[in-house]
Design brief:
With about 80 residues, this protein is an all-alpha fold. Helix content is about 65%, strand content about 0%. The protein has a domain at about 1-55.
Length: about 80
């Protein structure tokens, strides 16, 4: 069982960083079914976090865009969305 879990992690990592062949995709589907409850997006979230961390944020957001986003955020927060009170 440990070997199949290791292979599952290898395939999930490969899917998050590259593309899988048809055979690997089929194997991944079988392993996911065999290991119920596995967070199959964990490597994708980790890869996204690495990409976000590597972004160049030294350039400031244009003031017009910043103002628009701040206005939209304020409108959203002040709206009476369902479940908010």
């Amino acid at each position: 069982m440990l070997r199949s879990r290791q292979r599952l992690d290898q395939l999930l990592l490969a899917r998050a960083t590259a593309s899988l062949s048809a055979d690997d995709s089929a194997e991944l589907a079988r392993l996911l079914a065999a290991h119920g409850g596995v967070d199959e997006e964990v490597y994708e979230r980790a890869a996204a976090a690495v990409c976000l961390a590597a972004l160049d944020t030294s350039e400031a957001m244009p003031s017009r865009l910043r103002s628009k986003l701040e206005r939209q955020a304020a409108e959203f927060l002040s709206s009476e969305a369902p479940g908010r009170r």
